[in-house]
Amino acid sequence: MATTKIRKTPGVCNGAACIGRTQIPVWEIIALQLQGCSEANLLSDYPQLTKDDLKAARTYYAQHPEEIDAAIAAENSD
Asked: Which of 4, 49, 55, 76 has the most other CB atoms within 10 Å of its CB?
């Protein structure tokens, strides 16, 4: 399943859900997509990510929208 690429590690990115072996939070990728960033641009801007990583982030968001929306809102309030 795609969400197996998502992990939460205490002390890493404040415990936020991150994509696999990276320290890239799911909320960051979802926020960029919600702003209109294309998959091609994300893959160019984050060369360590794959299409499967982006799919895993979208799947995680679909399963945990409240968590990710709250993280996006918290980041935008800073």
From this structure: 49
